[in-house]
Amino acid sequence: MNAIVSRRILGSSISDTPEYFRYPDEIRDRFVATDDIEFRDGSRVTATEIWDYLTTVGPVKFPNLYDLSSLYGNRLSQDVTLPTTLKHNYLLMTMHDRMTRARAQGHPIVFVQGGQSVDPYYAAGAIALRPASTGIWARRQREGLSRNQEELEGRADKQKAYNAISFEVCNSAGYEHIQEGTVPADMVAPFTALRCSDVSYGTEAHRHGPRAKEVKLLLVDYPLDHQKDKDWSIRYFADNLRRLTRNIDELTGRTTTEDDLAREIKLHNEGRRLSIELADLWWSADQPPTNGKDRRDLFQLGGMELHGDPVASLSILREARRVIEQRVKDRHLAKGVQKDAARLFVCGSCVFPNDYRTEEAGGIIVGNDNHWSDITTLVDESGEPYHELARAVLSYPYEQPLKDRARWTVEQIKKSRTDGVLFLYKWGCNTQSAIARLLVDEIKAQTGIHTIIIEDDMTRTQTEQLQNRVNAFIEMVS
Ligand code: SF4
Q1: Among 349, 351, 425, which is best to mutate for testing ligand 1, by the most ligand atoms less than 8 A from CB?
Q2: Ligand 1 pocket, 171 CB below 6 A?
Q3: What is the pLDDT of residues 263-296, one digit of tens each?
Q4: With helix as H, strand as E and coil as C, how does 147-159 read?
Q5: pLDDT tens-digit profile of 390-419?
Q6: Which H or E run contains 133?
């Protein structure tokens, strides 16, 4: 007999027999009438094919993703009438198949860091993947795992990387997948922006890993500290971007032209603009039109790198813009979100509370600064493309001196009608931990709203510690 043992922990039930989610048949007809996804190689997938994958292939290959427990912040969204969330999930589930095919078609895989634009990588015919995307690719190679099995395997991978790099790193820069060969990266070439101290540890570690001879290394040197208006600095970074595309050309055997970059900038600007419009719509609504996880997935699509295919991301964004506009008109309140939920804004890199648990506690995350900073920075399409891209990248608000970063963050907080600010960072995140106090003091001085700083542990073994502080904060600001 299968005894179900469950207990209540802060409003959520834990069971030794997982319950699995299924997309309900009654939404099928409506979903299959929605848009196709178009890909970079010109191919397409129809909504019917996506439906069939999510209801027959996905549950067998990746049962862990269909685990219904709200203890997992990356659980599939239950907002099944939002077609773009199903399409986003399809792209994540097919990451391994799609990336393997694209590499075989001659697109090198280049490891980058989060919070940077990826226009020049795609202009040169590469695929730019940040740590989160390499992790998704690696996990999609393991089939049939339960949630617990998947969590344990993921932690074992991370531990290997910490041992190989340094106990001080928080994230490990994809080392565990790239140097183990799970993800066949051809190059490690992130911007050395200030936001992430891990990128330096990680890039250096790739110099001595088991695949060091096969993986090309390049630093795209980002001049730090108030450089955005200095001419020499823009020219210097533009030269670094040229060096980057030349290095990718050595892998592909082709020559990237300024026209290639100009075309790519235009495409990525469309994504950035759509994300900004989508955010303005979402923030203007009386009540949240999606849950927090779907909001974040949609807003970050303008970064155009999570799926390893900017054209596919753009397909979803175009559709999402229309769907969200309609939901706002209909005053739609997203499933799982409480009316008058406390609106929270997250500052800092790489840590998020569990959206579902946050919503159960009466809150919702309405925005975040990291990554949003590069998405909201449009590139001028009228000038020389390397120069204009360098100018834009050096002006990312997240990389600016404190007062400038705070000014931009306060604008986002006001636009999103935030009730409280969480500054979250990981243990080992040197820049964000150093700046947290100064930034939240500045935000508080300018807005008067409540703020809290929480440090998360690097191995994510203490998610409950993080969540119960977030839930207490929600009570305070509600
Ligand atoms: S938490 Fe900080 S140091 Fe770690 S990967 Fe993120 S930005 Fe980099």
Answers
A1: 349
A2: yes
A3: 999 999 999 999 999 999 999 999 999 999 999 9
A4: HHHHHHHHHHHHH
A5: 999 999 999 999 999 999 999 999 999 999
A6: helix 131-139
Distance (angstroms) between ligand 1 centre and the Cα of 349 equals 6
CB atoms within 10 A of CB 139: 21
The response to whether residue 371 sits with its C-beta less than 6 Å from ligand 1 reads: no
Q: Half-sphere exposure of 339 toward its Cβ, with a 13 Å CA cutoff?
A: 2
Question: CATH number for the 340-368+401-478 domain, one of 3.40.50.11900, 3.40.640.10, 3.20.20.140, 2.60.120.10?
Answer: 3.40.50.11900
- Ligand 1: residue of 176, 350, 399 to mutate (most ligand atoms within 8 A of CB) is 350
Cα–Cα distance for residue pair 162/374, rounded to 1 Å: 28
Order of strands across the sheet that contains 109-111: 127-129, 109-111, 187-188, 216-217
The answer to whether the CB of 113 is under 6 A from ligand 1 is no
Indicate the top mutation candidate among 111, 197, 371 to test ligand 1's pocket, ranked by most ligand atoms within 8 A of CB: 197
Identify the pLDDT of residue 459.
63
Q: Please tell me the distance between residue 172's alpha carbon and the centre of ligand 1 in angstroms.
A: 9
Cα 326 to the center of its chain, rounded Å: 25
In this structure, the residue with its CA closest to atom 5 of ligand 1 is 171
DSSP code for 300: G
Could you read off the pLDDT of 32-67 as tens digits, one per residue? 999 999 999 999 999 999 999 999 999 999 999 999
Question: DSSP string spanning 77-132?
Answer: PS-TT-HHHHHHHHHHHTHHHHHHHHHHTT--EEE--TTS--HHHHHTT-EEE-HH
User: Is the model's pLDDT at 73 over the cut of 90?
Assistant: no
**pTM of model > 0.90:** yes
List the domain boundaries for the chain.
340-368+401-478
Q: Which of 91, 101, 100, 90 is nearest to 141 (CA)?
A: 100
Q: Which helix (H) or strand (E) holds 365?
A: strand 363-368
pLDDT digits (tens, 9 = 90+) for 76-131: 999 999 999 999 999 999 999 999 999 999 999 999 988 899 999 999 999 999 98
